[in-house]
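Justification of computing resources. Each target in the renewal requires a structure prediction run like the one illustrated here; the chain below, 270 residues long, is used simply to show the kind of job we budget for.
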Amino acid sequence: MSRLEVAWLGHATTDIRLGGGRFVTDPLLRDRVAHLRRHAGTSSLPDGPPVTAVLISHLHHDHLDLPSLRRLPPGTPLVVPRGAGRLVRSAAPGEVLEVSAGDDVTFGGVRITAVPADHQSNRTLSRVTADPLGFVLDGGGRTVYFPGDTDLHPVMKDLPSPDVALLPIWGWGPSIGPGHLDPARAVEAAEWLRARAVLPVHWGTLAPIHSTALKDGAASVVRRTRLARTQRAAPAWLAQPGTRFDAAVRERAPALDLRLVAPGPQMHGF
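Resulting structure tokens:
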């Protein structure tokens, strides 16, 4: 059986070593993106073998970050949702492969299958849209499920049981909207998947530079934003999704192999 290792670098960026290949998901290789600041993880790819391919789940700026794509090694192929190719080609370091749910692409001995996700298809300040995707990586008798951003989706019940599911359990703010898993629904997703192990992602990394609601005028917002730029401490809520997910797993799925890890370059074996 092939060796399987994963590093969670922060937010939805993971470094997957499977079947002799190296695959990176939704690379966010900066410490500041729009109104979001990184408080944990790393903005650099760890040293290691050449990146076999990069997988992009959807068009939102915290998942498809064009400046981050320009930092990837030259020649790195990108697998993107169908319709995103024109947007990313100017920043892509290598070939761009557009896929839809149900499509397969193969790199060496690893087959990557695109699967549907329940999330928004738009991109802020862009007319480009593309259906969001998750990916199942299958190589050397081992499987990894990376859902991207999604809420519960019926496809989860039909996928092969993954050796590890990289489930999102939150987002980048003190609350989340539709199209996301929270800790309770993420446990339900793990049960639907019959996952052997779960490494939770998409939490504990990014926070807005100001999290106060915009409700009392532009001048006040400007004052708060300037203040927030000088206050770099992580907000208290940032760690709460991990604690809540751990508690939900203990209560509802105690047999699940939960890998609740801090974001960073450390590789975790499965």
